[in-house]
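Posting for a labmate who doesn't have an account.
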Amino acid sequence: VQLQASGGGSVQAGGSLRLSCAASGIIFSINRMGWYRQAPGKQRDLVASITSGGSTNYADSVKGRFAISRDNAKNTVYLQMNSLKPEDTAVYYCAARNVSGAPTSAAEYDYWGQGTQVTVSS
């Protein structure tokens, strides 16, 4: 499975961005896809994830502002980010996991895309 992330950029606080993650390869095996982010000097944290059945979960810090969705026909997962804050600044990574069940850490994801930088200025 290969993951290609895109859509990062620089915006002012309050603005919006949409990230995309296109999957290719043996994609039928994917159970869950997620978005993680990592700020300089910090660990990689979950932002949101979505299962093949459409169930979603979000970090508390982004609930009500971010929305994860998937287009199965395009094998693509999206992260719509609204009301962005400076503390959302990070490199965002998409990830995919084959095994069912909710992972408890980033290490439980099987595949990773390259990161895309999101910078929010105040």
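Reply:
Got it, the structure tokens are right above this. The chain has no helices and eleven strands.
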